[in-house]
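Q: Could you fold this chain for me?
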Amino acid sequence: MAEALEDEEEQGHTEAGQLLDFRTAFHGSVFEKYHVLPLQLATLDAGSVVWTPPFIKICHFLLLPGNGDLLKRNREAFVNEFVQFCDAEDDTIRQLRPLIGKLEPIIADCHDAADVASKFMTEFGLFRKGEESEDAVRDRFRKMGTYRGSYTDLHVGQYLALCIQQFALSHSMRVLVRAFRRAGVDVTRECDETLARKLYDVGKAGAPDFDYLPIDNFNIFDTIVHLIDFDLVGIDGEHFPLRMILTTYPSNHDGWSAEVRDRQKGTLIAICAGEMSDDVLDEWYNEDTGARTLVKILDGNVVEERYKPHGDVPTRLTTVTTSADSSSSRFCKLGDGGVLDEDEDCDAAPAAVLLALH
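A: Sure. Below is the predicted structure, expressed as structure tokens.
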């Protein structure tokens, strides 16, 4: 199956080199075992861009006396001073070191942060720390949709920083695309900008509330969204085109959710929830078996009409779960109550999705 991919379309590249070789990556895997043809992988990791020193520090730099006026008056002079400001490692950057990794500011990041800050100031005005009344600050945050009551100067700085980071992702396609990677075949003829915006909207809508971020709706920074285009190949050789949107939450190592749609018609076929997500906890979690992975088929008729199963996979199911017991072995529980051993029939969460679709 994988041999059908063209050489020039099979590989994705990042700045560091090759991301994925679609010709060989899936040989002998659960995908090949269950007659699945992977076509495209795309990922949006917003935090990889906005959790960098320039975007973390741009707000603090703007709030220093005279810098807002300097940005409006002389962009190049502002950027030059901002680069030096980012070079100085402070307590904030040291605390965030495990999260953001490499600390050296990139000049391009500083220019991007300055461009975003300039557009942000045009739309919302310039905050002048210590010079505005609390009512003025509240009105400004109401306009940005982030009002939460009274503010201290510290809160103003924290909230404004997050607002600028959010603004960067929602208003700067250059910044958003930098957080986007794809590999494989562009089967739907969608440009990077289109897919990046689609994944951003999914991540923003589905991001959970994490306590350490002081404002709601900003958890896109800690949400990674993957788009996976693949075909189920039936025993008759016909391809059933599907698209999975998989959302993961790095701070919740076991948390993830996904949906699977007909790639041509957009019909929602299945929803999946992983490990410690609320859907799984509400329905499947118990102390004896631990956290589970849940897959629910919403439109089994479409699967039955468009996919002819092979004899070596289970028939169409309505629900599949996987669970880890005290010995860390895993099993799949089918909708009819039967149990499949992982070694023979399932391979954790990905296999559960494939089993359910079969």
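A (continued): The mean pLDDT is 68.
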